[in-house]
Amino acid sequence: MSHVFIVGGSGQVAKKLIEKLSKSSTPVTAMYRNESQEGDLEALGAIPVHADITQITTDDLAQLLKDSQADTVVFSAGAGGKGGQEATTLVDGKGLELAVNATKKSGIKKFILVSAFPEAGRSKGLGENFEHYIQIKKQSEYFLIQSGLEWLILRPGTLLNDEGTGLVNIGLALPYGTITRDDVATTLAALIQSSGLKYKILELTQGNETIETALEKV
Fold it and tell me: Domain NAD(P)-binding spans what residues (predicted)?
């Protein structure tokens, strides 16, 4: 059975993932930044670990990973548009690089990155901050691919708070679309349990196939 370590464990998708993993009796350690988040993570079934991805050192994060006895790292941290381009660079960029290096140092092999659909929001003219966000996400994907880890990259479409349907499109290249946070979490849970699926960039939108069927085709 996998033990999952989530960087960015207090995010909306991460919380849904924790809940799903806990229901399947999969141990999960969740790294969080704000002390007020500890109780919520415990209630969902996670082992909370307090650390800030923009402050922690590579060595210290590697030690946290070793102590957790995890075999899979999920990077779901993101600035979320707060703090402008600098915050995006620190969290989505440098934070990802630090997490990858710490994972390598810890001896863990499997690393799943929650990234972004490249076309998401482009038609809305969201401006320079959004273009910077997409640029950083692309750089982070490249850094992970070159890392030597057993990586997977998931690119969800625009995230919705609706209840998940369990019906999706998953592919190497898809037309732009939306996806519920719940279905993203369910897909991540399936990727965590999939031992044979690695070295792929998967795009994810709402669709007509079950997650299990869609993953079998990639």
Answer: 8-193
